[in-house]
Amino acid sequence: MRNPWIVGVSGASGTPYAAALLRGLFDAGESVDLVVSRAARLTILDETGAAFRDAHWKDDLSRWLGRDLDGADVAHWPAGDLAAGPSSGSYPARGMVVVPASTAACAGIAIGLSKDLLQRAAEVNLKERRRVVVVPRETPVTRSHLTHLIALHDAGAVVLPASPGFYGAGAGASAQQLIDFVAGKALDALGVSHTLFRRWRGELGS
Ligand SMILES: Cc1cc2nc3c(=O)[nH]c(=O)nc-3n(C[C@H](O)[C@H](O)[C@H](O)COP(=O)(O)O)c2cc1C
């Protein structure tokens, strides 16, 4: 039986984090169901110059990730489709990552708003006690943002801010190394192996 990770891309800045995570999941041979919110289409357009359209999702995803998707086990559900598979707890998902997670998505998931498939699928995976990772991207934050993150933590989610570490990569860390650090930490939280960053070995400056 197919047992995919649901990857929800919401409309916060940071779509390169989503691209790095998706590449990592495909490289590890994992199955993925992708949900891209309406607002995320704006951030993808702004940050990559490319459109993401439901009708052409496979071509658009391939262009976004900069690679051929042949061999990748990937499905796509429109964000407005509240009858889609991942909206039910009986759908055999392994868990879910919301990357990047907008403050709006964090709020909606935390209070059970389910305003679209992304929010509904995250709530479903939380209630089924599956692994849920949210990667919020906003700064500075209000008390209400923090309250929603605490609610997500208390509901069982791993709250993994898009906050890259600079160790390992050295003073000349590239943007891609910092992006891969965050994506790698999200894969660690899912228990998916990867080589996106060099692990700390206890040797300063090496
Ligand atoms: C270019 C652009 C960048 C944005 N960056 C952020 C961001 O970094 N963090 C955030 O929480 N919202 C950001 N927003 C606002 C969200 O897109 C907006 O709150 C939206 O309602 C989120 O909807 P969603 O959670 O359904 O994707 C951004 C919007 C745009 C157009």
From TrEMBL:
UniProtKB keywords: Flavoprotein, FMN, Prenyltransferase, Transferase
Record carries keyword Flavoprotein: yes
Domain Flavoprotein stretches: 5-189
InterPro entries the record matches: Flavin_trans-like (IPR036551), Flavoprotein (IPR003382), UbiX-like (IPR004507)
Short name of any one Pfam family annotated for the protein: Flavoprotein
One Gene Ontology molecular-function label: prenyltransferase activity
Record's protein name: Flavin prenyltransferase UbiX
Gene giving rise to this polypeptide: ubiX
